User: What shape does this take?
Amino acid sequence: MRITDLTIRGYGIFRDCRVEDLPQGLALFLGDNEAGKSTFLGFIRDVLFGSPDGRSRERTYPSLRGGRWGGSLGLASRDWSRLLVDRGPGSKGGQLTLSGSQGEPLSREALGRALGGTTREVFKNVYAFSLSELQTLETLNSERVRDAVYSAGLGAGLSSLPEILKGIEDKRGALFKPGGQRQKINSLVSRLEQTRSELSKASGEIEAYENAARELESLAQENEDLKQELSRLRARRSGLESVLTLWGEWLERDELLRELQGLPEVENFPDDGLKRYEDLADKLESLREQRDTLSSEMEALQRRIQSLAPDEGLLEREQTVRGLVEEKGRFVEAWEAIPGLESELKARLESLQTVIRRLGGGWTRERLLAFDTSLKVKEDVTRFAESLQNLENRVDRASRELKARGEDLAGADKALGEADEELAALKAGQLDWDEDLALELRRERDRFAQALQDAPALRGERDRGRREVERLLAEIDPSWSPGDLERFDTSLQLRERMERYRKELADKEREMLRLDQDIRSSREAAQELERKRSSLSRDLERLETPEFASLERVREAWSELQRLRRAAGEDETCRAREESLRDRISGLQREAESLREEPGQIRLHGSVALGGLLVCCLLLGLTGSGLFSWGATGPAAGLLGGLGLFFSWLALRERSRLARRRGEIADRRARLDEERQARESELQETELQKQDLEQEMSSLRQRLGLPESGGEESLEAELERARDLLQRWLRLEEDLEGLDGELKLARERTRDLEQRRKETGRAESQLRDAWKRELREMGLSPELEPSAAIRVLDRVETTRSELGHLRETEARLDRLESFMSDFAAKVERVAGNGEQTDSSREQLLSAVDRHLERVEQERERLKKRRVAEKEQERKAEEHSRIKAEYERVEVELAEAEKALEAKRREWRQWLEDAGLDPELTPDLAREALADVERAQGLIGEERELQEKLERSRSRVRDFTRRTRELARELNREEPQDRFLVPFLETLERELETSRANAGSIRELETQLREKGQALEETEGEIERLLQSQQELLSLAGAFDEEAFRSAGRTLERRQEISARLKELERALLRGTGQSDMGAVQELFGAWDRRDLEQEIPRLEQEIEDRESRRQEVSGRIGELRAEQGRLASSDDISRLRQEEESLREELYQAALGWSKHTLAGHLLRKAREKYEREQQPEVVRTAGAYLARITGGTYSGVFAPLGEGEVRAVDAEGQSRRPEELSRGTAEQLYLSLRFGYVDNAGRQGERLPVIMDDILVNFDRGRAENAAAAIAELAERNQVLYFSCHPRSIELFRRVAPEAPVFCLSDGAIRRCEDPPA
Amino acid sequence: MSSLRFVHAADLHLDAPFRGLSLDSAETGDKLRQATFIALQNLVDLCLRVRADFLLVAGDVYNQKDRSLRAQLRFRDALARLADHNVDAYVVHGNHDPTGTLSRAVRWPENTRVFESQEPECAAYVREEETLALIHGASHTRGGETRNLARKFRRSPEDVFQIGLLHANLGGNTGHEPYAPCDLQDLRAGGMDYWALGHVHSGGVRSRDPWAVYPGNIQGLSIAEPGSRGCYVVDVGRDRSVEAAFHPLHAVQWAVLEVDLRDLDTLDRLEEGVLEAVEAERERAGNCGLICRVVLCGRGPLHLRVSEEEGREELVQRLREQFSAAEPFVWIKDLVAESAPEIDLEARRGQKDLLGEVLAQAEELRNREDLLEFLHKEVLSDLFGHRRAKRFLQGLSREEADELLRRAELLCADRLESSDGE
Assistant: This one.
């Protein structure tokens, strides 16, 4: 991949900058310091990877000279034609836009592919780096870069391997930790344990159910038994209870039977005879009473009829009387109305007169009735009233509006006048100015102000720089001038040489010191050895000389003593053995003798057996001879016979056993004899042995100088003491010899060291002389130490850089001064208007500000005038509009007044036509019309009243006449007018009384007839009943009533007793549950009442006991059933098992997840290990080749120990050196080689990215710089390389190895192709 | 002879827990615990509906190790219900419920015959004084019965239809434990007209001469037992011709659904795809609960998302919510990612980059003879050797280890490839 072109919209000092035609290979960029090289590098990084965020320590480049931040890069590669990467402001490193060759938008992945997975960090440190990144080892040691560089070629993804591994590790850790609690698997295991323990608690349901079932079965049986027992007991109890309860009935029955026997029999007595007789007697009594009542009632009725008599005349004229009574109300009404009607008529006439008077003269009844008061007339009046009112309102409105318009007109006049005045005021006084100049001044004003502010600091910086350079020069050498500084060689070779001197001198010094120390310690060691030797020899002298000549002799004596002891021990053993042998021999002899006695006993046993056999035979013989008759003694004889047979079998068996035993004894005796002989010979041997031992012991004792017995203990102690002494003596002698040897060695070593010290001293002084010569050649004080001289070199370089900085500051100051004087000249040009100008630049600035302020004010005033002109025009227009309106209102008022006058004339004419007063207003005319209407109403009412009065008078006359006629017909006195009504009322009452009396008489006569009939019937019935009584008496054969009654009572008692007896027997049968009275008789006969009363409570107690047991059993059955039900419906185990399964599944899944991550981690680590082991050399080899090339073979390669994450340079002799042991330049070359090694390898694996370097050769000596340039040019054949430098020399270097490489110049934020590059 | 109709069921496994199901919905859990019982009820309903003469149950009515009283009582109640309607029942025991483990407190109804001996016994089915069938039955009397029980069966001399009722493993390779093994030859030698077998959970007619039938279990208990589960209704004609028809009984059905990631570019589309697949399965399953495993397969842009456990878990939760109110219920058991990354792993294996090296390492492991020992002792010993955890974890099988390796490879590939574009 390469960069083809780029566009910077705004980035650091760059603005709207474009670079095109960047070549495939090497491109060079030349620019002074601050020309924007680092900025340019930053731009490429930021566009490709986004700008660093706030946390990064990397530098950021905001857009300093305007323009939207960011820009774009055009990329191209062999695989794809073109990719445009654009980065603008935005979060997360900036807004990224990607488009293809046709401008089509592309996804973010396109850029990822183009960069081949390279991260920002890797790109920054490996592909696009400046001197600072090159120099710092840390940049290559950060883990990501290290992984990337050392494992280059591992392909995409390695750079993020630590993150991937960490991610996987995090996942594993979240799932499971061996000692964890909260991790998923750990917590699942805990839950499973919990579930399992709950399950084991919950199981056992089946056992519980079975136990319950067994118990239930036995309880159910018991329950059944109890039920039967209870019912039996209850039956018995209730039987006995009924006997007790019926005891009274039983006694009663007894008595009744006795009474029945005592009563006489009654024959031929009619059924129910007594009762029938009594009924007849009762009926007769009541019939007689009834007959008497009827007679007295008939008499009373006849008396009542006689007391009533009616008025017949009045009854005949009933119709007439009722007609008059009906009219009576209307008569009274007419009579009373006449006076009221008369007074009302009079009042109407008076009202009419009043109205006529109000209407004025000339009005008669006729004229009033003829006057037209129709609705049309009224409507005319109303129309006139409305029209007149409208017209008056119109006139009024018009005059009010005219007044308002007059006021508006006056206001408009005034406003117009004011606007004119304001305009006139604004037109006065104006200023002319140069617009372009003002703009230029404004643009440059801030820069001038900044320059004014910066100038003193810059001057100060310059002065400080000068002083610093002088100081530094003086420090190096007071006589040095800047020229000397330039000439002074600070090349890396010199540095390295000095460093070598420093190291060697230091080494020599260190060695001398070390040798001095060694010599000292060697001497001390020798002295110490001597001290030890003399103390040892003193010890040896003090030691007494041993009694025995040598240790050997002591050892010999020691072993002889031991032999003596052993011999004594053996002697002891011999004695003991001898004794035991003797015992054994005598034992054997005894045994042999006892065996000789045994055959006699055996014979005895045999005779016993024979006896048994004999008894047996005897018994058999007895049986056979019939001595015992079988019948009685058969069994006993059989038994004896059996015994006999048994004994004979025993005897036979014993005999054979004895025979065997005899054989065994003979064998045994032979063996005993053999053993005795063996023991005896053994004894002889032992005795011989004992004799030998005794001989040996005495000889040993002789040799050891011991008495015949004892003395071993003291000899042993003596020997031990001698041995110890001897050993100690020998040891001391050995030590002494050793010390002598050591002492000799120590002395020799001291001599060697002293010799080496002398040689080293000589070498050091030679080295020092060479160093001094070197210093003199350099023109430095020969007394300088190498480290001080290196510091001088550093100082010279520092001073040089300080001097460079000083020159730069001076140039900047010059540019600033020239800008300020240009600006001052421009200000002079505008300050011609009598403005104050002064050479002081601050005042110049304030003059510019004042001028700019005035210009601004003038602009403002002009703007205001234009506004005022517009306002004045607007007000004039308003005035003319108001005036036209006023005139229109005036015309309208005149028209309204004319119309009002015409309408008034019309009204007056209408009044005249109606015959009314022409001066009436419409309201008054409406009132006159109302009066006429009222008068017309009054005339009508008067006529109605006259007619009503006449009708009332004629009705009164007619009523009076008819009433008087009736009085005459009834022969009564004619009543006066005012008594007419009371008279009629009296007649009416009398009429009612007569009518009522006539009805009562008819009813009483009917009743009288009915009573007569009833009396007759009663008499008949009495007769019939008397006859029946007589019949009864004759049926019973009773001569009188008393005899009849006595027979009846006897019969009744007999019947009563029989009925009661039946009842009692029924109750007894029912109560005892027996079927016939015989059984009842038996039952009651069996019990005494007192026994019975005791038996029942006993039974009750028994029942109660059984009942309570039965309740207990039922309760337990209920409990068990409930328990079974609970167990049957229990869901616990099922739920727990499902839960266990569920947890197991979760655990299984989690375990698979954990295993997957663990295995993945394992695979990744294994792969990395292998890769680092096998593939790493590729990068390192390439890097080694680069290093050899750049150093011209001084270093032959690069070495990277596995897993240590560091690199070393290998020199021509094969010595490896750490970067800190190399000179700065060489270290930089090592890092550069590593980078190139990585770039080359990564390129072979995937995408080749552009390499961008910023002045990295400055610390290389000329030869190595050339080599490096050649290496870079060669790299550029494969990767695009952009090289930045501020040294034309560097550019020349590259032009020599790559003449066709284009050169771009950077200056003050611009980049352009160099027309005349350094050749 | 009159015609005859009976129902043949086996492997009821009443009240056995559903395996491999991690539930966080208590409601669904309750439904699942009822599932085997509902299936039993369906069995009884079927017997009554088709007016069967009798029911044959060929072992494994319940799991002895579960010690479930509820299972036995429910079974008793079911038989009692059949007895009320004059349907006889003949029952043998299998390896999961050997004789003697049933509670003695549970009494079977009068017309239930339980064959308790391992020696075949014979019972006659008599209708209106006519013997219509002889049923020979033998039970497992202990767990882990490895003897050939089928060989002990002998046809009776009577000339009636004869049935052998046995819990046995017919033929070697059934995927079940080789308890009471036998082969077709043994069955032929027994001389039965119909062998009512139990033990193998995937039902089917194994032979028509003689008839040898496995009805399978009446309720699937794990994802390894998907699809319909039920029993056979067998009709025996006057001429002793046999017709057997399968009837489903399950209350909950397990299903494995595949969703191809190929054309799915967003998670929303994936969710839709899964929903469609589940809905289609619901349609097929009809009126019973559904437990689904959704297998995401194929190559597609969503591979990376679905290979992350969190991503899948989130999707599963969302899907479960979608079906939370479904009736009958639907439970998404899990989402299994069997999708492949867009790169070709085989082509990458052994290439000289890190991924190639990882794949090569994995291949090396895969070829190890002692892979299981190596994994358990070296790589995964923290967990599989953990004192507490190992009590609940079985060691990995060879298949599981291979699958684990494959997943670890995919994980590495995904991580390495996704870090590539960052």
Q: What stands out?
A: Chain A touches chain B through 75 residues (CB under 8 Å). The two ends of chain A are 29 Å apart (CA to CA).
